[in-house]
């Protein structure tokens, strides 16, 4: 830990600017090298561009025991974390989750699960899951829980954009950012060999693949939910849906990808080198990954055991974990996806203005 992460990151960035050995490794270094000095906003932008692949650390000749003692991934992880906490709405929630995330995630999922357990068999009726919990009850509970995180994230991103001196956004900036995020380009390494995240002597695409499994698995699950909503309201086709329906065709592979990706990320996070991460927030990181794993695992379990006596308990656990996931999104590691995307948009603006 550094007493002043921003000031320490500024010191290290100035040394990196003199060396430039890592110029082609990721988006951080081209963005760094356009500056002669670094404002707090510049450092915040660099920190959120950094994907903590750690290649630069392993290539650097100025790491400890050298007197410069560079550890750019480690110090940027601390700056990045502080930027999320300071721009979160409300800020106290961001700090609380990242310090005690695992406990907050588990107790939130348990509390929400008890809420759904208490709400089962309310009047309303229906088939499948709706026979346990009425559709109107689900809407009444989930709609506010979906809208509040969007509002909180919008406020946080607005604060972040102001901090990094973001310019008016063009369509090309957005498409460039999404293209980078879709391919996880900044986890590919400067020569496309991958990261040295888990072993400083070996490059690997494992972390990149696991991130893609989580991202695309989540998007498929979200698309499954959205398609079910459209079928319900636009075509008067309520659940349950068959195996070959659109929601199942999207949700099943999405759930499997999420399960594999989150389990792999928990293992990889445990294997990672602690001094290159921000150890203060490991509870929050593991809490988020664990919560997302519970969401995907219980969703698949519901499909497998939907005709058993365990349906009600499984449904309460699944819906409780989903509700906790949404409510905690602005403060969990899930928010980093939105901040990283904003950083990539800002980087696209940088490239456009300097081309």
What is the molecular shape? elongated
Radius of gyration: 22 Å
Task: Decide which structural class fits the backbone.
Answer: mainly alpha
Number of helices: 13
Task: Compose a concise summary of this entry.
With 355 residues, this protein is an all-alpha fold. The protein has helices spanning 5-19, 28-32, 40-49, 55-59, 72-87, 91-119, 135-163, 171-183, 206-234, 246-271, 282-304, 311-328, 335-354.
What does this structure look like?
- The chain is mostly helical and 355 residues long.
- The protein has two domains: 5-80, no CATH class; 83-354, no CATH class.
- The protein is built from 13 helices and no strands.
- It has helices at residues 5-19, 28-32, 40-49, 55-59, 72-87, 91-119, 135-163, 171-183, 206-234, 246-271, 282-304, 311-328, 335-354.
- Helix 3 (40-49) crosses helix 13 and helix 8 crosses helix 13 (335-354).
- It is elongated, with a radius of gyration of 22 Å.
- 40% of the residues are buried.
- The mean pLDDT is 88.
- This is Tricarballylate utilization 4Fe-4S protein TcuB.
- InterPro entries: Citrate_utilization_prot_B (IPR012830).
- The chain crosses the membrane at residues 101-119, 139-157, 213-235, 250-268, 288-305, 311-331.
- Keywords: Membrane, Transmembrane, Transmembrane helix.
Question: How would you describe this structure in keywords?
Answer:
single chain, 355 residues, mainly alpha, 2 domains, 13 helices, 67% helix, transmembrane, Tricarballylate utilization 4Fe-4S protein TcuB, membrane
Task: Describe the secondary structure blueprint for this structure.
Elements: H1 5-19, H2 28-32, H3 40-49, H4 55-59, H5 72-87, H6 91-119, H7 135-163, H8 171-183, H9 206-234, H10 246-271, H11 282-304, H12 311-328, H13 335-354
Helix pairs in contact: 1-5, 3-5, 3-13, 5-6, 6-11, 6-12, 7-12, 7-13, 8-13, 9-10, 10-11, 11-12
């Amino acid at each position: 830990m550094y007493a002043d992460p921003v000031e320490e990151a500024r010191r290290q960035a100035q040394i990196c600017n003199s060396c430039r050995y890592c110029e082609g490794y990721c988006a951080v270094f081209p963005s760094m090298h356009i500056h002669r000095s670094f404002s707090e906003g510049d450092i915040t932008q660099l920190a959120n561009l950094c994907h903590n692949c750690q290649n630069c650390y392993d290539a650097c000749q100025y790491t400890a025991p050298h007197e410069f003692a560079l550890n750019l991934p480690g110090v940027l992880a601390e700056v990045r974390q502080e930027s999320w906490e300071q721009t979160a709405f409300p800020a106290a929630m961001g700090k609380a989750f990242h310090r005690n995330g695992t406990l907050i995630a588990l107790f939130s999922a348990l509390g929400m699960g008890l809420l759904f357990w208490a709400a089962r068999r309310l009047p309303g009726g229906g088939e499948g899951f709706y026979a346990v919990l009425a559709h109107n009850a689900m809407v009444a509970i989930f709609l506010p829980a979906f809208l509040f995180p969007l509002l909180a994230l919008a406020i946080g991103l607005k604060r972040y954009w102001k901090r990094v001196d973001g310019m008016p956004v063009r369509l090309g900036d957005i498409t460039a950012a999404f293209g980078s995020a879709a391919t996880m380009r900044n986890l590919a390494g400067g020569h496309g060999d991958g990261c040295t995240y888990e072993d400083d002597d070996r490059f690997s695409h494992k972390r990149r693949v696991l991130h893609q499994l989580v991202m695309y698995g989540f998007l498929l699950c979200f698309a499954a939910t959205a398609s079910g909503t459209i079928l319900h309201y636009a075509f008067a086709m309520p659940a349950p849906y068959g195996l070959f329906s659109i929601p199942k065709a999207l949700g099943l592979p999405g759930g499997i990808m999420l399960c594999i990706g989150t389990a792999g990320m928990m293992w990889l996070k445990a294997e990672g080198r602690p001094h290159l991460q921000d150890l203060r927030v490991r509870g929050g990181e593991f809490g988020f990954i664990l919560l997302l794993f519970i969401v995907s695992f219980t969703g698949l379990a519901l499909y497998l055991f939907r005709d058993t006596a365990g349906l009600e308990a499984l449904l309460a656990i699944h819906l409780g974990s989903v509700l906790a996931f949404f409510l905690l999104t602005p403060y969990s590691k899930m928010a980093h996806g939105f901040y990283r995307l904003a950083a990539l948009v800002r980087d696209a603006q940088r490239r456009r203005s300097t081309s």
